[in-house]
Amino acid sequence: MSPPTGSRPDAVPAAAHYAALMAGHAVSRPAADPFDAHVFACVLALCTAEAEALGETLADRLGLRPEEVAAIEEVYFAPGAVGRSGVPTGLPVAVEEEVTVRDLLVAHRAERGSEEVWLAAIVARRAMEPDHLWQDLGLHARAELSRLMARHFPVLAAGNDRNLKWKKYLYRRLCEAEGFVLCTAPSCAACADFSVCFGDESGESRMAQRRRLADEAFAAETAATACAAVPGHVSTESRRRCRVALHQGASPPAGRR
């Protein structure tokens, strides 16, 4: 993935971080699983961009200890790649809700290796964010989260046979473990809140959203600068047409450039 043509280099930091991490993976860690590398690169890139924007540490955004972030780098990426993206300087502070989600994931991991412990912590921390879980992990589509769950938490994934939203499904499993009933409807088909559990989870990835918003802001700034240079004697209507043309990516009307 690369920043879009015409964008300022600092406008899409998540995409730039992702590209750098995956380039390092290809050169330095080609034997590491490419899908897992993609997953870690996505969430590291997004969390790094968030940490930079919010003035927080990477640990605040990931839910990992510094040594765990360093271990991910050692397994999947070039030496120093994650360090340039802001290795955490403090310990993550987990709330009780996050801990219960993490424990659920750890208890159902496939036991392939340490990556599942790291992913359990990351997924639990990112489940505290407001968007769809796949978006808050920085993934490109919901299907990638489904693949992640099937690969690393297969028992949990198999239980989601009705294709609930992943965050909703994880919380339902927690409630069931505690003996609670989430819904009093006789069946899902008869429930007025069907879309809350089973609704569409499509949409733009977080990196795509950031890139689109950055491009829109850059285009608006370019249009404002260009129209400010239109001579003062030009009519108000001509100025309006100039702004519309520039905002849509076209050239200003002939004779008014």
Considering the chains and any ligands shown, give keywords for the structure.
mainly alpha, disordered C terminus, 3 domains, NifQ, 257 residues, NifQ family protein, molybdenum ion binding
Mean pLDDT: 75
Number of helices: 13
- Rg (CA only): 23 Å
Shape: globular
Helix content: 55-70%
**Cα distance, first to last residue?**
35 Å
Structural class: mainly alpha
Biggest sheet features: none
List low-confidence stretches.
1-11, 84-88, 184-188, 242-257
Order of helices and strands: HHHHHHHHHHHHH
Structural domain tally: 3
Strand segment tally: 0
Pfam families: NifQ
GO biological process, one term: nitrogen fixation
Organism: Methylobacterium nodulans (strain LMG 21967 / CNCM I-2342 / ORS 2060)
Protein name: NifQ family protein
